[in-house]
Amino acid sequence: MILKFKMLIIALSFGFVVIGSLFAQTDNRLNGRWITVQDDITMEYRFNNGNFEDSTNGLSYRRGTYTVSNGNINLNYTHMHGDSFNFIFNELGISFSKLDSKWHTLNEVILAVRPIFIGLGFSERDVNNAIHSMMTSNQSVPYSVDTNTLILTFSEGNERTVLIFNKR
Q: Is the residue at 150 inside a domain?
């Protein structure tokens, strides 16, 4: 009886995942390269049928998947590029070049930077949480798009930032 119950729970869980995936949507109008310049910083998003990459000043930063629902784009970060992570550390004055010039998973990034932060006095838990939130904090961002303009509205606490991207 317990085995049948466990099998039922597994089957239902699988069913919910499959059904959720079937209803996930993308927006073909997002496909392409979108660029904005704010305070001499060039930001770019590249969308392609549910996948995306972002970059800053030509340096690849993160990539992942996206879905859209009710006027929101839901960004799920899955990888971070080694060059951008090395750049961030070097800008902070921390000598760092442990990540190769390729896309890295969350676990790879954590393993590479954990010793540095722990050496600076941060706890292992704080390091893991910081990296995890930076890379995989799924964002649900209100958006609107027409032929050549993409508007994203980012909110954090009481602050709201509206970015207007042009298609290239």
A: yes
| CA dist., res. 108 & res. 70, Å (int) | 34
**Per the structure, how many domains does the chain have?**
1
Q: Round to whole Å and give the CA distance between 83 and 101.
A: 5
Range(s) of the domain holding residue 48: 28-167
Best CA proximity match to 168, nearest among 63, 21, 55: 55
pLDDT in tens, 82-103: 988 888 888 888 776 678 899 9
Q: Which CATH number characterizes residue 125's domain?
A: 2.40.128
79: Cβ–Cβ under 8 A, 6 or more apart, which residues?
62, 63, 64, 103, 104, 105, 106, 135
